[in-house]
Design a protein that fits this description.
Blueprint: H1 2-20, H2 27-34, E1 53-54, E2 57-60, H3 62-72, H4 74-93, E3 100-113, E4 123-138, E5 144-156, E6 163-178, H5 185-253, H6 259-294, H7 300-303, E7 306-309, H8 324-334, H9 336-357, E8 362-380, E9 387-390, H10 394-403, E10 407-416, H11 422-482
Parallel strand pairs: 2-7
Antiparallel strand pairs: 1-2, 3-4, 4-5, 5-6, 6-8, 8-9, 8-10
Length: about 500
């Protein structure tokens, strides 16, 4: 009884540990096992475009353009799928701890001729039927647990069998516990830890790519605004050139202008008309690029609609004054590229420790315990013919099995000590090289971020000075332009 309680307590502890490990399949597992997955055949239509449809145009602010980019941009979606695909690597890392249930049944009937009376029959006929159930589990401590149950029914026409048919049952438990290599949580959970860091690294890469897509959308938005305003300026310039040409032509008719000047005026009109044509097609090109970024080119209806970008081209108020050192500190703290490299460095450390751990000898403790049971019709073979003494069956065999009256148990220690382990030594060397490479990559990215921040601060300062100078130049140009219509009239008429 004490032996039974001891074994029952050991099994209860193992199954409690198994339940805490949460390795049993959920209802979703059985649903996926019995149902075919839904295979996508087409992509969804672009979203959110009709929210900005006003008077037959796409009316967009800068924030609207960014929102549509995040919803419909193909590159953003591809990067998102790459990040989502990394999640399944964590699930795959748990594969080592998936429990395995096995079962089997086999039946064998044989008929053999005999050459001795010891066979018990002139023609020996046997029927053997065996049923097996097994369960195997590897725990995160490295412990491997196996349990197997088998029941064998055997019947024969031999007169020398004391049980016919006979039922033999066997229940055995075994475990293997690594004591050096692969011992404990670290080496067994390392793939899971690495996969989780890879997920965080993939998320950081996804954030960096999204930032690039947003920056590209912002640049294309303002490029389109600039192309539109540039076209308006060139059209006004063409109108002024045409007005000047008409005035010069009138002055030529009145004899107030030499004939050579009219050709110069015509040349200016033609040159500015060429600039207008080039600007019109440049505007179309920038609008097409912006439509592609927003996903508007995916819908035939929105593909041909005009874009109405409502952000003012003239800056309002003063530009921000940014402290370069503060901006650099914020960039070094929040740039996702650096976070991705930090996760890579952590994985490099784990790979180094894991490779060093695998250099240890492979020492393992193996233990097993088995109990047996026998049942069936008991026959007295001393009488002629053999006489049935007591009837029995599978229940008797299971009863003996549960009483643990016929145990078999033992343990052994096994040591595998490679004289040289060049493969693991090479893995350790590669892990050290990978760590140094990641450190250099981190330094390279930090250098690039410092340069980008300085360049952005300098660009902002340059923009502030350029805008102030451009404002003065614009005012002077307007004053100069106000005198142009009266200049030809001030010329004295020529006489032939």
């Amino acid at each position: 009884m004490k032996r039974f309680l001891l074994i029952f307590g050991w099994l209860l502890f193992l199954f409690h540990t198994l339940a805490r490990a949460q390795t049993f399949p959920t209802l979703d597992y059985f649903h996926n096992l019995t149902h075919q997955p839904q295979i996508p055949t087409q992509l969804p239509a672009p979203e959110g475009l009709r929210d900005y449809l006003v008077a037959g145009k796409l009316r967009l602010t800068l924030i609207d353009a960014i929102r549509l980019t995040l919803l419909n941009n193909t590159e953003v979606r591809l990067n998102q799928l790459q990040y989502e695909g990394t999640r399944f690597a964590i699930q795959r890392a748990y594969q080592l701890f998936d429990p395995l249930f096995t079962s089997g049944f086999n039946a064998t009937r044989s008929t053999l001729p005999t050459f001795t009376q010891l066979a018990g029959a002139p023609t020996l006929g046997d029927l053997s039927q065996q049923t097996q159930f097994g369960y195997a589990q590897t725990f995160q401590t490295g412990t491997q647990f196996n349990t197997n149950f088998s029941a064998n029914r055997s019947s024969s026409n031999s007169i020398f069998l004391t049980f016919n048919p006979s039922f033999f049952t066997n229940l055995n438990f075994s475990f293997t516990q690594p004591l050096l290599r692969n011992r404990g949580f670290f080496p067994n959970r390392a793939p899971i830890v690495i996969a989780r860091r890879n997920l965080r690294q993939s998320r950081a890469d996804f954030e960096a790519r999204v930032n690039m897509s947003i920056a590209r959308a912002v640049d294309q938005y303002w490029d389109t605004v600039q192309a539109r305003e540039n076209l308006n300026v060139l059209r006004k310039s063409l109108e002024l050139a045409e007005a000047t040409y008409r005035q010069n032509k009138r002055a030529l008719e009145l004899g107030a202008l030499p004939p050579l000047d009219i050709y110069r005026s015509e040349s200016q009109v033609a040159s500015r008309r060429v600039s207008v044509i080039q600007a019109e097609y440049l505007l179309k090109q920038t609008e097409d690029e912006l439509r592609r970024t927003l996903g508007a080119d995916l819908d035939p209806y929105f593909q041909v609609l005009d874009l109405e970008l409502v952000e003012a081209s003239k800056p309002s108020g003063e530009l921000f004054t940014i402290d370069g050192q503060e901006a650099l500190q914020r960039a070094l703290e929040h740039r996702p590229e650096l976070e991705g490299l930090r996760q890579q460095l952590a994985n490099d450390d784990t790979n180094i420790y894991l490779a060093h751990h695998r250099l240890q000898p492979d020492l393992s403790l193996n233990g097993f315990y088995a109990t047996n049971g026998l049942g069936g019709n008991q026959i007295d073979t001393a009488m002629v013919p053999p006489t049935l003494i007591a009837r029995g069956g599978l229940g008797d065999a299971l009863s003996q099995l549960g009483s643990f009256a016929f145990p078999t148990y033992g343990f052994n220690l096994q040591l595998n000590l490679p004289v040289k382990n060049r493969a693991v030594e090479a893995d350790l060397g590669n892990a050290l090289v990978a760590k140094r490479r990641s450190l250099y990559l981190l330094r390279q990215v930090e250098q690039g971020i410092r340069l980008e921040v300085r360049y952005a601060v300098h660009q902002l300062e340059q923009a502030k000075l350029s805008m102030a100078a451009a404002q003065i130049a614009r005012e002077l140009a307007q004053i100069n332009l106000s005198f142009l219509p009266w200049r030809p009239r001030a010329s004295s008429p020529r006489t032939n």
